[in-house]
Amino acid sequence: MTRTVLCFGDSNTHGTMPMETLTSSRRHAPEDRWPRAAEAALGAGWQVIEEGLPGRTAQFPDPVMGDHMDGRMGLRIALASHRPVDVLAIMLGTNDTKAMFGADARRVAAGLAGLLAMANDVMVQEAHGGFRVLLICPPPVLEQGPIARQFAGARETSLALPPLLRDLAATWGAGFLDAGSVIEVSPVDGVHFDAEAQRSLGRAVAGAIEAL
Q1: What DSSP letter does each residue of 176-202 carry, written as one string?
Q2: pLDDT by residue (tens digit) across 157-210?
Q3: 36, 202 in Cβ contact below 8 A?
Q4: Which domains does the chain have, with CATH numbers?
Q5: 192-101-106 Cα angle (round to 5)
Q6: Which residues does 1 contact at the CB level (< 8 Å), separation at least 6?
């Protein structure tokens, strides 16, 4: 029997390469994206679905990129269109730290709490035959590179996230992985991961999934 993992996230789940300019949109090769690396590490009997949208937040419509960046909308659609899944891996929160949202770490965590509530809804779980959730805290932001203005103040906020999300995962009975304990963001833009970091994260995610 094949087990399915739905990886729900933002540009780092999409595989966006570190941005050298504001208009960069290059994407890592499939084998260099963490969801595919996790699939390879998990081995036979597992399939991974990539649901990464650049710009996605856990809770905020984006006034520039659009209302569809609100992860609450996206998660409802993803869970309905990809059912049944056995594991839902969520890695969001980086874009919630953007200066324009004015969110502190607790507000960012509150957005992820909403996604966990949605995933654990009785009707949603029943539609899938039950699934486990892995909450992944993204690594801290570096305020540098071409998108530094968008993330002004984000480092302090992102540094405060791991203990909040760890407690949140425990409250909801979810698995937890602090990606910042495994990898660092690229110094090129302070947000995205290089290929080596993507692969390392994928292997760590596979281990966290097996631990579920």
Answers
A1: EEEGGGT----TTTSSS--HHHHHHHH
A2: 999 999 999 999 999 999 999 999 999 999 999 999 999 999 999 999 999 999
A3: yes
A4: 3-211 (3.40.50.1110)
A5: 85
A6: 45
